[in-house]
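Subject: complex prediction, re-run

Hi both,

The earlier run crashed halfway through, so I resubmitted it with identical inputs.
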Amino acid sequence: MSTTGIRPEDTMSDDPRRRAPLVTGSPTFSTVTEVICRVAEAPKTPLAWYVAMVVSGAFAGLFLVLTGHLLVTGVGVWGNNAPVYWAFDITNFVFWVGIGHAGTLISAVLFILRQKWRTSINRLAEAMTVFAVMVAGLFPAIHIGRVWVVYWLLPYPNQMGIWPNFRSPLLWDVVAVTGYATVSALFWYVGMIPDLATLRDRARHRIRRLVLGAAALGWRGSARQWQHYEKAYLLLAAVATPLVVSVHSVVSFDFAVSIIPGWHTTIFPVYFVAGAIFSGLAMVITLLIPARAFLGLEDLVTIRHFDNINKVILATSLMVGYAYGIEVFSAWYGGGHYEQFAFLNRAYGPYWWAFWTMVVCNVAVPQLFWLRVFRTQVWLMLPVVLLVNVGMWFERFVIIVTSLSRDYLPSAWRPFTPTWVDFGMLLGSFGVFFFLFLLFLRFLPIVAMAEMKTILPGSDGHGEVGQAKHE
Amino acid sequence: MPQSPDPKRHWRSLEELADTPHFRAFLEAEFPAADDPGGVSRRRWLQLMGASLALASVGGCYWEQRELLPAVDQPVDRLPGKPLHFATALDVAGAVQGLMVTSHDGRPIKIEGNGAHPLSLGATDAFAQASILSLYDPDRTRRVVRSADGRAPQSSTWDEFERFAREHFGALRDRGGEGLAVLAGASASPTLAAQRAGFLAAFPQARWYEYEPLSRDEEIAGARLVTGGALRTQLDLARARAVLTLDADLFAEHPAALRYARDFARSREVAGGRTSRLYAVEPTYTITGMAADHRLALRAAQVASFAQLLEWEVARLAGLAAADGADDSPAEDPEAPPAPPYDAAVAQLVRAAARDLWEHRGESVVAAGPRQPAAVHAAVHRLNAMLRNVGETVHYTEEPEGARPAHHEALAALVEALRGGTVETLLILGSNPLYNAPADLDFAAAFEQAKVRIHASLYRDETGRRCHWHLPEAHFLESWGDARSFDGTYSLVQPLIEPLFGGRTAIELLALLRGEAVPRPRELVRATFASIAGEVAPEELDLQALWRRTLHDGLLAGSAYPRQLPGLLAPHRPQPPPPTELDRGLPAGGEMELVFCRDRSVFDGRFANNGWLQETPDPLTKITWDNAALLSPATAAALGVEADTRVRLSYQGREVEMPVYILPGQAAGSVALPLGYGRTAAGTVGGDAEAGVPPVGANAYRLRTSEALAFGSGLTLVPTGTPYRLATTQDHHAIDTVGLRGRARRLGELIREAPLDEYLAHPDFARHVVHHPPLKSLWEEWSYEEGHRWGMSIDLSKCIGCNACVVACTAENNVPVVGRERVLMGREMHWIRVDRYFQGDPEEPAAACQPLTCHHCENAPCEQVCPVAATVHSREGLNDMVYNRCVGTRYCAINCPYKVRRFNYFHYFGDLDQPGNEVANMAFNPEVTVRGRGVMEKCTFCVQRIQNARIEARNRRRPLADGDIRTACQQACPAEAIEFGDLNDPASRVRTAHNDDRAYGMLAELNVKPRTAYLARIRNPNPELSDASDEHDRHPA
Amino acid sequence: MSEATPSPENAPAEKPALLLAEFDSAAALVAAARSVREAGYSRFDAHSPFPIHGIDAAMGLRSALLPWLVFFAGVVGLVVALGVQLWMNAVDYPLNISGKPLFSLPANVPITYELIVLLAGGTAFLGIFLFGRLPELAHPLFVSDRFRRVTDDGFFLSIEAADERFDEKATSALLRRLGAREVETVFEPAAGRAIPVAFFWVGILAAVLALLPPLWIARVRATRSHNPRVQLIFDMHLQPTYRPQGASPLFADGRAARPPIPGTVARGQLYEDDHYYRGLADGGFAERFPREVTMETMRRGEERFRIYCSACHGLDGQGEGMTLVRAQARGEWIPLLPLSAEPIAAQPVGELFNTITHGIRTMPAYGNQIPVEDRWAIVAHLRALQYSRRAPLEEVPPEDRPRLR
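This time it finished cleanly. Structure:
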């Protein structure tokens, strides 16, 4: 595509008089279509993709094998013990659910707020959300002792005539996470319908055309369809927005509702949601950087996008840091010595390293984003966001394991030692995630083309007739 | 068990799979965190792993079909499923407990104490509780084994042996039994004694040797030193106000421990106002030491000097008292020779204790333990005499074992005879000298000299495997017999079940060898009974009725030994020992002292194959499945020994490598070695070289010599630095400063205790330890005013931490044994645990223990978080656990502030499907569900017992009375520390306990409303020493 | 951009479905749409790669009622969630959990909240299908190759032939006038070209496969089998414990229950009192009751007699119990001696007690079924029955006398 027209640095102009453009180069409707569809239609798949597939596929396979091992042998293959009844399993769960928040935030919240810059990244973020939530959902399902009766958590009429206990946060979890998964999947799909139609109409091979045709539901881009489509999309965004807030709040109830020192605190919902967005956006950047480079999306995903997201990351990082502080303060101010000990133990107990890793990665490192250069230079921001991902995993580890390993009775204190299965399944979960994500990159429209076009010049119906047309 | 053949075949195939090296490797890799360099015993491992296979093994198989086999005519009073109770007695190395055994459909499944028996008073110790598991141990010898020299052992039959015996012993009889030697363990059975006499009459030339690795020989010798006669000391701790023990574990190791523990607990009743005081002087921490108000750690060798010093102190007081007549107030005599400068703590304690004992003369007790030499026992006898305790709190009776030679001498004599080649036939009854003989005797070599070696025992142990004939012995629950307990009370042993593996008792065997065609053990016992009954109750004519009554009651009334008042021999002028002998620093030249201890889990090794006992944490060290060299922190520091490492111990040229455990309160410079581990032929649990099962722990007998049977000096200890993790259930990762501070901060709130005077000043101090806002609920609370309201109380003043409750609970509730590897992972399954905390100076700490089980909180935090309502509250306030509904989220356990819930991380009972283990299944309590994998479990307050009592009451058409329901832990407790009952019954003992001033609910400030109340512990420190004891309470460590 | 040459399938013979006009830009499209409407056409539509603002107005589209549907779904979610939780936890299966109230709103908020969102979201999604008339896999427009650019950068206006003002020539002229770059007549698709056949086959196959499991289950449920039911995972159904009267391969007799060992005495089974437990006194059967007989004993005895004895002996002990009556009707048993008959009445109570305990002739032993106390109570009742046979009339309460025959 031509390098004339808008140059990348223009996107960074903060001149209030003219709104900075959201795309660079001199894109037209067809070039947008071209750039984006090229990825999904490329006749021969790039080698890099295969390499990535093999690696992530291997880890995904490892995950499946270990899950089978777990189901046949028992939860004991993990390092969980008494009193650390939850460890990597729930840590991974909360971590992935957290990752899953950025997608809906970007697509729904920014949509409601009419943040047009979202359009070039929301598809990617939503895909990430869907896969992250899928991975997250696996852990609660397999971490229970008798997986084969997991359906007992659902309120279905049964011969025992007994129902689940709706007071239990775990049940809230089930509903919240499944609800979130459903809605974000719908949201993702709805957004893709017009773009699937595009792929359909460009398809050469008949089978491909049929399949895509079915997936696109016979979209004709007619004004009537657009009308209802936009209305429905808006409504979906409207209902998805409270979800962003509620899901991780409910997840945090798992801890906040219990009586474990270090868990039993009212700040958790806010704190968890902030953390979730924090980690989610970090993961978005992590995925965006290579995707942008490899798939040649430089003009659609501009530095301005990174800049914006990094600003949000910085903000959420401050919230998280504040939450850490407030936790300690209220423990001290509350005067309960069990609570006080819980936090002393986090910082100076056997798991001090985990705690300080968390603080450094989540609070200290992101402060670099005060510097514009870190927000705008890809190779500078990458390490930061990677560290944020690490830090957020450790946050959950710290909350769960340190609090459990030393609660009320010193006689019951015990350290937690992970087994190789624990590590295997942690890596495996990444494998599953990236495996799915790579499939998405290869076969589906990775940017919302239809939406992109709405922000291009000549996209509104009021411009004067007979505008120049590119081929 | 499933009748369709498919599952079995399916299982077998898995079995094979489990044996392929590949799969084994896969299993070993299972727990990198748990694996220890020592290597996990493959067999033991697979037994537990087989567990996890079970799920797969039964997968896809059919619903089980059960056969119902009713009796053609049901015997009267035998209702299927209705348990019966039989009185019998257990004789462990001559120490007897009267038992009441529960039998389900003719299968004994639970052992309790016989309430009528003066020495067990309804309680039992852990060994008695666990002996039911030994009965059903698949590793027990199942058949006669014959192994001619040089040929592989082959299974044989009793007929074959009888043929052999007729011919062989017939010849021997003709030669008058020349060249025949018998080695037997200690026994308290008069019938066996009679048999022995008869046997020796039949074989006049035969020699009979009696050997026990742990014996009371020194005690007997001590009594002889002072009184010239064979006398046995009987203490009356119930009346004692001041007790001083010299290396004596009265509450755990004494033959009358149960009785003493009960009496002591009674004497601690603070309500009465006359609380006893206990001083303990000992080289290593014991149960008694935990209960003591003042404890002094001295090397075993120094105890003698301490006794001497004490005797001197008391003599001074006595002398003075004698001078100014009736005036009992002790006074200082200015001319009295001043005591030379002793170690401050020692001097202080001796002085204070002496005064205390003297003030309570006639109501005090001084006792020494079997580890101490005769001289110390002699001193103790003199002290008790000086303190005028004899006839008051200290009584003497005849010592039936007085005549026999000391055990180690007997064994030495046997070795002599063997070396001399004068023994050609050696008959070994139950004992295992190849494992537990003193190392210097080199028994194994001498033993080979005998041409014919016959071994009768429960297990084909180290000795049995080297004998020509090995004969299965009958378990005491399978046999007719009798036993006389420490105080002489005569009990009959009646069988609960026919011998499972065709075992025979020593009594039968001796009769058989004597030439009796068909020995009838019951008749033999009956004969002895007749003679003893004749002495005890001559006026009772109807022998048959008396016999039946004795069987029924479990004891023959009035058969206790009569008390005697011995005169003391030569008057003794006590002299103070040189102060150097009481120096408590590390001995010069790094020459450590080694002290051999009876192990609190496996006794002298005879219980090594008992999984329940192996998994029971030691009350002090909390070690399971292992033994370790116990060092004091200072000693360890001086020697540069790290915790969780192995050390090499060498004593007189013999070496043993074993892990160390740093035990606060161990005497400086003294290393305690628990005996009974390192078995190589115990079985698949305790170690079996032939089956490739490595031993559990290290064998301390290898360092034990005839000169140093109890303790000796000159041990050198070299740290190897090899890391080794001991499977403890408490105090895990090296506690960091934060952890230590946190523990110290909360200890006073969890275990509330106070010295007596403070208690008398503020009886309800325990209620004011934790201050919290009034506990209000946001909603209307459920009411339990209607019907029953089950609750428990645990008196910390009484609990001695002996573990009886833990094993009792395991036996009653089918609690799984998980094995060392799982304990290392932190997955032990005990429903009741006894927490142990040390307080104060690590060299001289005070110890506190606290039994902990489900508190059945009325606002149980575990319930609200269960997503499937698998744990809910019953109308009577029980926190019910519905196993079948549990999906295993483990959230309930997380939300339990007491952490008393246990999770089945694996299918721990899967291996029981394996062929050959059907017998092990008989040990299960059929009234309690055996939990599968993935299920949470916890204490149920023995709900099955509640239901049984309720049904029983209904059948008898009367309401439930207090005491009808006794939980397993409560029933086993020798100290009556645990009460259970209906809190709605104002008269019930548990209600009164809850109303007691000392009652408090642990963590009650969480508003969980626990149904278990603890009664604060009242220590009774000597005011003269109280600053020391206060200091303990102030700075807990 | 190639001219739209009519493909062989849609020969001129076929009737046109609609006219398709392409425009240069969104703006042009909007303008054209407005004029077409003004021209009075109603059945036309505009097609664009992205939503064009203002085109709704231009085409005069009314806004949908989807928002209201979504709101309604939310309300439904609220009601259902609260109702379900209330009914399940507080009404249908109330449990005391942590001593908390059976129904308290705070605990039920999260699930309610989530269900509202879930239903609302689902409805919004369905709205697209409902109002956007999706899926519509077959449409004449798809025949046109040019139309494919609608999802790329093409702006089209289509006027259906069904519109009453439609006239191929005039309409296309109108469109050209409005600045359409191209105008193409799209014909009704030839038969069978509607939806690819593959779709049908896939659909049918899926449906059939989906039917198989339920059919299999139905079959299994209907058939008889002598095998016990299949149990995939045993959990705790397979207990290693031995149940009462169970089997065990260990013992020769195959029973898990072991016989009592002769000579042993269980607690509470000493039975020293021969009189009470065996009905014996000074060498013979006892003549007197071991315990005092109270009214309560008599009532108990009567009750127990009715339970255990009356089946054969009859309520009055005359031997007309229904078991016996039936047995005799089939001529199997000899008649029973009435319990009031002399030989029995003459027996000492001890002997009666002994007979109940151990049975006699065809009468089985009841010793292991009836507790000792109750056996004596029955004997007492027996004595009463016997006496009632020869009691003098004056001992009968006057009010009862008439009832005597």
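The CA atoms of residues 193 and 291 of chain C lie 103 Å apart.

- K.
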